[in-house]
Amino acid sequence: MHTIYTEMAISKKILLNHGSGGKLTHELIKEVFVRYFSNGSELPLTDSAIIDGDTQKLAFTTDSYVVDPIFFPGGDIGKLAVCGTVNDLAVCGAIPEYLSCGFIIEEGFEFEKLIKIVSSMARTADKAGVKIITGDTKVVDKGKCDKIFINTAGVGRISLKNENIASGINVKPGDKIIINGGIAEHGMAILAEREGLKFDTGILSDCAPLNKMIEQITTGNDAVKFMRDATRGGLATVLCEIAESRNLGIDIHESEIPIKDNVRGICDLLGFDPLYVANEGKVVIIVDPLYANRILEGMKKNELGKHASVIGEVVDDHEGLVAMETEIGGRRIVDMLAGEQLPRIC
Amino acid sequence: MHTIYTEMAISKKILLNHGSGGKLTHELIKEVFVRYFSNGSELPLTDSAIIDGDTQKLAFTTDSYVVDPIFFPGGDIGKLAVCGTVNDLAVCGAIPEYLSCGFIIEEGFEFEKLIKIVSSMARTADKAGVKIITGDTKVVDKGKCDKIFINTAGVGRISLKNENIASGINVKPGDKIIINGGIAEHGMAILAEREGLKFDTGILSDCAPLNKMIEQITTGNDAVKFMRDATRGGLATVLCEIAESRNLGIDIHESEIPIKDNVRGICDLLGFDPLYVANEGKVVIIVDPLYANRILEGMKKNELGKHASVIGEVVDDHEGLVAMETEIGGRRIVDMLAGEQLPRIC
């Protein structure tokens, strides 16, 4: 922690990597936000906070969306702003119910685009079964923001049986790790659009609300021990975070990780490791091994889980680290992302 | 509505005035956000939404803060981001409990400033008795946002007896209108700082969390029929909105409206009507006339209400309009603000 603080003290300025979802983001959260906001208590600034109620618990979360470009194959900033917050609630075991939305719009932004974004938000909210019930709009002078930024906050209800899913406190060696489909699609769709690649990659962002699928697999059983959506920082970051926070070893098998051929191709071409590329419709689920197949089969019946796969397991070895058996038969340690090459991916 | 839509269709682009809190903001909310998000139901996108629960109701609100400058006499963007959302919850009769915060930060922003802002948020939250429990940070390239933007969303609990305060459905002729102190201080403090006025105006923003004072005056009685904080658009906008929405007449008396001499002086000098200038620590309260004095006396015991004043009453005349008896003995209609001269005031 001291070296971290020193690193911040040396840079003295916010770097793009402080928003990457990787190491620098973690340091910023620990050293600035948690330090000042925790107020002596144990409240962590997690993706979703869980609020104790008299008769039930609430989950509460927020994200700001600054994605560039604002329209991309498979989605737009509005769809993303609904999916991201719905998914943050769903992966902590909550049923997402209500969203707020705060718009910061650059002067001169076309109404036509705003209406396209807002109607996309409405459609996505409808699909997810959530209601957008409060909002705010600020307009800033031309050149003082980039087109449009959207914040959504979300409130959901969480049952007592799900309250430990976000922390993964019940995860133990032997548990199986599942992902609901192909990785790296969102990041590569954004990149292809941004770079205006001359050839048609055909890659669509996987941006989707996962709450209905998650509700299906968590209802009526206690098998799900941990879930997290693999957004900024990709699959690798989720696995590194849970391995580190629970001090458990994780083994994954490269051959079992779903990835579409065109996504793999463009990653290879541009030199990106798909393990670290952002997804917006993928959830990592750690489950009791006895129920792993049942949950996998359940997921495959859902459109958003039809390519679901068991990609690895929690092991009683190399605590705090993620190891991957590669397709060519070797083994490598999967590290936490230090920086990120793709700012403004969400 | 049709003319409004036409006006939007003609402009085709977002104007600074769409963020003013005045007429164009109302049109944007009605014609874009409510149109697409209401989804056939009656959900209005009010400042705070009220969520029905099994045993209690929740209030939920959000605001983005883009104030420029980010540090100003009497506060900073962080203090503002906490006060604004706390006050939005409090004026709908809720007890604010939890906040989220979403930061959008420009690459290169100094850590020292970030820490100053974050610690100001922590102090203000502490003072208001709310907890900041979830957050998000995005960093955008230099030149793609202006220093720092902050979104806060807030959740509070609301008792059944207070659930009609936000709509003002029980307001009727004879009710008294109270404000808790001097107007136009926030707007003029920002302007003075922004313009770098050579002389020292001595004006501080009134930015403050009003929830404790409001809790005092709403506890143990049903006298409070409506409350709203007079932010963007000022006192006049709040009065015009309630007069129009409930189709009631409102009379106010200029001589009873508190305003500090230096604030009045700078408004005169620069040609601003203080009725329309933003406040960040002022609430307009409409109360049963039988309890008006008791509530006024209660407010005056609180530091934030010591200059409270009964400024007018609801009348059975000129429905939908606000009339002001001026200090020189005349009478004028107080119109809804068409535009605003002060963008990025909050």
Could you characterize what this model shows?
The structure is a homodimer of 346-residue chains. Chain A has 346 residues and is an alpha+beta fold. Chain A folds into three domains: 43 residues, no CATH class; 116 residues, 2-Layer Sandwich (60s Ribosomal Protein L30, Chain: A), CATH 3.30.1330.10; 159 residues, Alpha-Beta Complex (Phosphoribosyl-aminoimidazole Synthetase, Chain A, domain 2), CATH 3.90.650.10. Helix content of chain A is 31%, strand content 25%. In chain A, the strands form three sheets. Chain A has a seven-stranded mixed sheet with strand order 9-11-8-12-10-13-14, with helices on both faces. In chain A, strands 1-2-7-5-6 form a five-stranded mixed sheet, covered by helices on one side. The longest helix of chain A has 18 residues. Chains A and B meet through helix 1, helix 2, strand 1, strand 2 and strand 5 of A and helix 1, helix 2, strand 1, strand 2 and strand 5 of B.
